[in-house]
Amino acid sequence: MLSAVAFGCNPLMARTVYAGGGNAITLTLCRLVFGSVLFGLLCCLRGVSLRITRRECRDLAICAIGFSATPILLLSSYHYLPSGLATTIHFVYPTLVLAGCVLFRHEKLTLRKVVCCILCTVGVISFYTPGGSVRLVGILIAFASGATYAFYTVYLAGSCLLEMDAYKLACWTGVFSGVITFAAALCLGQFAFPDTALAWSVTGIFCVVICFASLLYQLGTKYAGAQSTALFSTFEPLTSVMIGALVYHESMNLRAAAGVFCILLGTCLLALDKDRTAQCPPDSQHGRSLENAKN
């Protein structure tokens, strides 16, 4: 939930950066580079080796495809759709995560989680305000952004990466994703860095907040499981709506209020779910014990 709230602050900071000359792709790239350096330094200070195995390298490369493709696809969809509609379509990913866990990881799907998924989906849809042009290609791209993030979440939950130190995982995720994002930025020719002191300052704050949001999302996947983490992430659009109402004095109509209620009800039901199963590989706790003993 903390991760979703932090991600929900994106629009508040991004607007200032964009007004100062930056754009979304370079902002994402700055965040990935900053996160790699920050978490790499934290690993060194804690005496955690940054060496990775061949299997970890493979899993990181696969996860990075979904992790880096998501913002690129979502940002691209804004050229064809209103941003509110694009974000709403993107949040199909909690439902895709539940389906992916059942189909590919053979996890049990409880009735409570189905109800929570329906409530959260209805809540997110309630935030959409009709208007503007809609093109099929934009809908497909926005849906693809949700699919890639669902792929990242499901693959991460089933990989060996959750056994890795959290800072080390965040560092290497940033490295692999940064390489992919840099290549995409070169191909698209969309490098645009801020040209004001305020925009650079906000960029720095953005990097810190979103880096730790990504770290918290990975930890949420580790301790709560992919299904619950994806459903709790619906706090992100809820946070954006609340910021719009409190900071930008945007109107909160009855439909949006109903959406807030649905998401809060769904997440409360999920938090009370007593059907919890271990999400880490059986030997992960043993592996951590050996590592702690070695340290």
Structural overview:
The protein is mostly helical and 295 residues long. Helices cover 75% and strands 0% of the residues. The chain contains 14 helices and no strands. It has helices spanning 2-8, 10-19, 24-45, 54-77, 83-90, 93-104, 111-126, 136-158, 166-188, 197-224, 226-232, 235-246, 254-271, 284-294. Helix 2 packs antiparallel against helix 10 (197-224) and helix 7 (111-126) packs antiparallel against helix 13 (254-271). The longest helix has 28 residues, at 197-224. It is globular, with a radius of gyration of 19 Å. The model is unreliable at 276-295 (pLDDT under 50).
Average pLDDT works out at: 82
What's the alpha carbon Rg, rounded to whole Å? 19 Å
What does the overall shape look like? globular
Please report the number of helical segments.
14
Briefly note the structural class of the backbone. Answer: mainly alpha
Unreliably modeled segments: 276-295
Biggest pleated-sheet summary? none
Q: What is the distance, rounded to the nearest whole angstrom, between the alpha carbons of the first and last residues?
A: 32 Å
Number of DSSP E strands: 0
Q: Percent of residues in beta strands?
A: under 5%
SSE run = HHHHHHHHHHHHHH
The share of residues in helices is over 70%
Question: How are the secondary structure elements laid out?
Answer:
Blueprint: H1 2-8, H2 10-19, H3 24-45, H4 54-77, H5 83-90, H6 93-104, H7 111-126, H8 136-158, H9 166-188, H10 197-224, H11 226-232, H12 235-246, H13 254-271, H14 284-294
Helix pairs in contact: 1-10, 1-12, 2-10, 3-9, 3-10, 4-8, 4-9, 5-8, 6-8, 6-11, 7-13, 9-10, 10-11
